[in-house]
Specification:
mainly beta; 5 helices; flat
């Protein structure tokens, strides 16, 4: 039927033009084969013997693809009784058992997205060959990762698994080839084998200090990200861990999967993270992304906090004659990271402040990374300051003289 399916795919009935009483058809939709192909066959003059020879070699489109996983312990022996989670990482198939939004809807003990290894450390996943939008129960088309955890001791994360129609595979290969230090695995119509080995976690030892170098208490969170292909970039945070410091500001987080992870204080609303020391190397910036070195088993970090952010942006808003404009809105676009490290949050963060009676404004930030400053006031044309080549604006004075809006004739 494959040749007939291709013929029909080019000339399906649109929803509004379906024969009366029939079901609207989509290209390559098996449910409509009989209604669409029988009239076509009656008008085709090819001899029946030729059709029969073609049909004998045609293979039916698969309804699903099979992924057979073998999970090994760090010593190479099979890992029985370990839960393996399938994580969808695209807008079309976003599914994350580690997402805190799912806490009220925990993943079932067994589902198409979660399988426990048998006595030989093996588990099988079936991925449907349909759009996830049409089948929200089982995994459908899209990119995935597998994650297995043996408590706090060890973790396995698969390379990106690409389960897509053939014409979409090249895009995903190009997009994901370097993620998680492994080439993507492309599923085929035959059973695809995959062997994963659990890796022992590394240990993060740290300390929180105030601006005077005294220990301070607080809580710390770390997590890792699979790089969700969503418009926000969020939705694929995994392997979250957290702890609180002791009275001397010390903390330890164990069992971190040995790949890049993100660290953040969980209660930084009334203080600012201003300095960091990682492995004894200091920086006057909050370094919230850490990549373990090969075979590294322990990482040390010290985070210094202050009651005021160190980088000051200020200025005055006036009219062309130098008279101050009070109540003007000044919007700053701050980033927490350098350009090469920017994420969706950095690129979509905006902070408005209002000029005082003398037209003055001020804003403090934990990094010297401001993308642009925009000033606007009622009755005046808005004005924006930004550097060419995406360079950040330096801390200091950034003043604006706003021009009156042109009056409508």
């Amino acid at each position: 039927m494959r040749l007939l399916r291709l013929f029909a795919a080019k000339t399906p009935f649109p929803d509004s033009a379906s024969p009366k009483g029939s079901t609207p058809c989509r290209p390559l939709d098996n449910a409509c084969d009989s209604a669409m192909y029988e009239p076509v066959m009656r008008h085709l003059l090819m001899p029946a013997a030729v059709w029969a020879s073609l049909f004998s070699f045609a293979a039916a489109d698969p309804e699903s693809r099979t992924l057979d996983v073998t999970l090994l312990r760090p010593d190479g022996k099979p890992a029985p009784g370990i839960v393996i989670d399938l994580i969808g990482t695209d807008r079309s198939n976003l599914h994350n058992a580690f997402d805190p939004d799912n806490e009220n809807k925990p993943e079932p003990a067994s589902s198409p997205w979660r399988v426990k290894t048998d006595a030989g450390g093996k588990a099988r996943f079936q991925l449907a060959c349909v759009s996830q939008y049409d089948n929200d129960q089982a995994p459908g088309w899209g990119p995935y990762h597998l994650i297995a955890q043996d408590g706090e001791k060890s973790t396995a994360v698969s390379p990106r698994i690409v389960h897509m129609q053939p014409d979409a595979v090249p895009y995903y290969l190009e997009s994901y080839r370097k993620e998680w230090n492994a080439n993507p695995l492309v599923l085929k119509d035959v059973i695809t084998p995959l062997t994963l080995r659990l890796k022992p976690g590394i240990e993060l030892k740290g300390r929180l200090l105030d601006a005077k170098g005294n220990p301070t208490q607080g809580s710390i969170q770390i997590w890792q990200n699979l790089g969700a292909g969503t418009h926000t970039g969020y939705g694929a945070d995994i392997l979250k861990k957290g702890t609180v410091t002791d009275a001397k500001g010390n903390f330890t987080i164990k069992g971190i999967y040995p790949n890049t992870f993100i660290i953040a204080p969980a209660d930084d609303h009334d203080r600012y993270w201003v300095k960091t020391s990682v492995r004894g190397k200091s920086s006057d910036l909050p370094l919230d992304e850490i990549t373990p070195l090969p075979d590294e088993k322990e990482i040390s970090i010290t985070c210094t906090f202050a009651t005021n952010a160190p980088y000051l942006y200020q200025g005055a808003i006036s009219d062309p004659d130098g008279h101050p404009i009070s109540g003007a809105t000044v919007t700053l676009a701050p980033s927490m990271h350098k350009r090469e490290k920017m994420n969706w949050g950095d690129d979509h963060h905006f902070t408005p402040v209002v000029s005082d009676e003398k037209g003055r404004y001020s804003f403090r930030h934990t990094t010297p990374f401001i993308r642009f400053i925009r000033a606007e006031a009622e009755g005046y044309e808005a004005q924006t300051e930004e550097n060419e080549n995406d360079a950040f604006l330096r801390p200091g004075t950034h003043s604006f003289k706003l021009q009156p809006e042109a009056k409508a004739e």
